[in-house]
């Protein structure tokens, strides 16, 4: 009898995992020009965990590039125990001058566009987005001369640096960020 109960418990856990899918389309512009060959991603983010864990536990569902008109259509699916938290990410250099690295913008996709099964029933149309837009919060990855890769969290009122190996890096960082954000002394 105990073996039957254990078997049923195990089977119910297996059955609970389900395929879920989502789709998003739109057009990216850089000013009046189409933003072609821009990397776009569908990402599944785990909510209810710390930001550090999200970076570890989230996963890319699909990566593509915009076409010559800046248009994209992403459709992807994943198997999860809990409802997925889909995110759309854009990595671009629009209105970035000669600054190294890509700007990253992310958008949460509404749950109403998540479908149970491998094929999405609805497509979230994000419309046309001008990447010159300056968002209040963004994550910037920069390659600096004496750092392999540093991740900065930018906010309109402050910023946090995950790694500063030496004072010259702070100077380089301030010069990179000062054109777009108000920079405070650290």
TrEMBL record:
UniProt main location, coarse: secreted
Cellular component terms per the entry's GO annotation: cell surface; extracellular region
Keywords: Secreted, Signal
Location(s) in or outside the cell: Secreted
Domain of life per record: Eukaryota
Signal sequence extent: 1-16
InterPro entries (UniProt xref): Transthyretin-like, Transthyretin-like_sf
Family per record: Belongs to the nematode transthyretin-like family.
UniProt cross-references to PANTHER family, sorted A to Z: TRANSTHYRETIN-LIKE FAMILY PROTEIN, TRANSTHYRETIN-LIKE FAMILY PROTEIN-RELATED
Protein name listed in UniProt: Transthyretin-like family protein
Species this protein is from: Elaeophora elaphi
């Amino acid at each position: 009898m105990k073996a039957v109960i254990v078997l049923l418990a195990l089977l119910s856990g297996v059955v609970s995992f389900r395929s879920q899918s989502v789709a998003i389309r739109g057009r990216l512009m850089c000013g009046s020009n189409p933003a072609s060959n821009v990397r776009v991603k569908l990402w599944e983010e785990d909510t209810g965990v710390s930001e550090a864990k999200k970076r570890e536990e989230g996963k890319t569902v699909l990566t593509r590039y915009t076409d010559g008109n800046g248009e994209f259509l992403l459709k992807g699916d994943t198997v999860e125990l809990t409802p997925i938290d889909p995110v759309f990410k854009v990595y671009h250099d629009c209105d970035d001058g000669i600054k190294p690295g890509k700007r990253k913008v992310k958008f949460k996709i509404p749950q109403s566009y998540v479908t149970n099964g491998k094929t999405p029933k609805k497509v979230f149309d994000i419309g046309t987005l001008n990447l010159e837009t300056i968002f209040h919060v963004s994550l910037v990855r920069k390659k600096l001369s004496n750092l392999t890769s540093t991740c900065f969290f930018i906010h309109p009122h402050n910023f946090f640096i995950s790694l500063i190996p030496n004072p010259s890096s702070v100077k380089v960082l301030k010069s990179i960020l000062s054109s777009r954000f108000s920079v405070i002394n650290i």
